[in-house]
């Protein structure tokens, strides 16, 4: 057998075999070139410059806490306190949030006071765990105001008329009566100077529409309540926030909120659509987080809502 015949029998390839051989050779060359390409890329790659980033981090770490909120305020310590006299900073030191601390101050400014430890638990935002932690440290010092006695000066007619009471008779000037707004009836309201039967009925109607008052300042919203009447009487009102009727966001009917003074139809529809799509609310804060209501509306309506 000749050499030419030998090669033609054992090494002769058809067109398909030739194409396959070419592709195989190309793949072998490509695979062998990949490690060299990777090594070349790693050797010539430029590393990022972290100098600017490090300088930003250093400047941030050098920042001091703002003076308005001292670091000591954020501690979670406990100490004996009187909720009638403790300051806003004292409540922060006790571990209460800024919102709860503000609610306590507003409650006192509106004429409210704490006569027993259980009154502290009625503040909006104070749950059972907070109250049980602080209850042993509540020390309420109630100072009773003395009743003032004054000698009544005799008039000329009294000295002349023997049938009149003697000039040295004594009368007692009583302290102003304090009316709790969320439980007051029409008779209690009418007994106050400047409030008639019509205005008393308007106050009670607006109270029912709201679900109760959480601030004396809400009286300003009562229709046709004279500003001078409010100015003269606001110190005679107290608020029991435990009487507020709260609506469960996860289980309520449309008409329960449709007539609320602080809720518009557009906002209520947004809440209903959220419930259909997303399901239950995890907290009342979801209203603000998902922009279902604006900040002003949220501050007003939040005390009347809950999510459970």
Report the CATH topology name of the domain at 71-137.
DNA polymerase, domain 1
Structural class label: mainly alpha
- What is the distance, rounded to the nearest whole angstrom, between the alpha carbons of the first and last residues? 97 Å
Range of helix content: 40-55%
Q: What composes the largest sheet?
A: 2 strands, antiparallel
Low-confidence stretches: 64-75, 144-152, 162-174
What characteristics describe this protein?
308 residues; mainly alpha; DNA polymerase, domain 1; two-stranded antiparallel sheet; two-stranded parallel sheet; 6 strands; elongated
Architecture overview:
The chain has 308 residues and is mainly alpha-helical. It contains 15 helices and six strands. The radius of gyration is 39 Å and the shape is elongated. Mean pLDDT is 79; it is low at 64-75, 144-152 and 162-174. The N and C termini lie far apart (97 Å). It has a two-stranded antiparallel ribbon with strand order 1-2. Strands 3-4 form a two-stranded parallel ribbon. A two-stranded parallel ribbon has the order 5-6.
Strand and helix layout:
Layout: H1 3-10, H2 15-44, H3 51-61, H4 88-93, H5 98-109, H6 117-120, H7 128-134, E1 148-151, H8 156-160, E2 170-173, E3 179-180, H9 186-190, H10 197-210, H11 227-233, E4 237-238, E5 247-248, H12 254-258, H13 265-278, H14 286-289, H15 295-301, E6 305-306
Parallel strand pairs: 3-4, 5-6
Antiparallel strand pairs: 1-2
């Amino acid at each position: 057998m000749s050499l030419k015949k030998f090669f033609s029998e054992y090494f002769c390839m058809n067109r398909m075999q030739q194409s396959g051989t070419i592709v195989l050779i190309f793949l072998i060359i490509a695979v062998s070139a990949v490690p060299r390409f990777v090594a070349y890329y790693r050797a010539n790659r430029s590393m990022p410059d972290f100098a600017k980033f490090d300088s930003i981090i250093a400047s941030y770490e050098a920042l001091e806490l703002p003076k308005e909120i001292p670091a000591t305020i954020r501690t979670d310590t406990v100490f004996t306190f009187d909720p009638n006299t403790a300051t806003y900073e004292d409540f922060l030191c006790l571990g209460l949030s800024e919102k709860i601390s503000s609610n306590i101050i507003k409650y006192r400014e509106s004429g409210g006071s704490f006569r027993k430890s259980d009154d502290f638990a009625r503040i909006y935002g104070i749950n059972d765990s907070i109250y049980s932690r602080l209850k042993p440290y509540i020390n309420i010092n109630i100072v009773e105001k003395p009743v003032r006695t004054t000698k009544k000066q005799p008039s000329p007619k009294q000295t002349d008329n023997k049938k009149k009471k003697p000039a040295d008779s004594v009368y007692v000037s009583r302290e102003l009566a304090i009316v709790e707004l969320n439980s007051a009836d029409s008779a209690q309201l009418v007994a106050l100077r400047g409030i008639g039967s019509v205005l008393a009925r308007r106050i009670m109607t607006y109270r029912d529409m709201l679900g109760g008052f959480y601030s004396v300042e809400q009286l300003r919203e009562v229709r046709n309540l004279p500003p001078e009447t409010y100015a003269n009487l606001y110190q005679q009102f107290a608020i029991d926030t435990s009487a507020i009727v709260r609506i469960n966001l996860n289980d309520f009917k449309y008409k329960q909120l449709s007539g609320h003074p602080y809720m518009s139809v557009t906002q209520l529809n947004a809440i209903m659509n959220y419930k259909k799509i997303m399901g239950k609310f995890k907290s009342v804060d979801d209203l603000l987080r998902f922009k279902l209501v604006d900040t002003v509306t949220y501050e007003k309506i939040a005390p009347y809502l809950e999510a459970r």
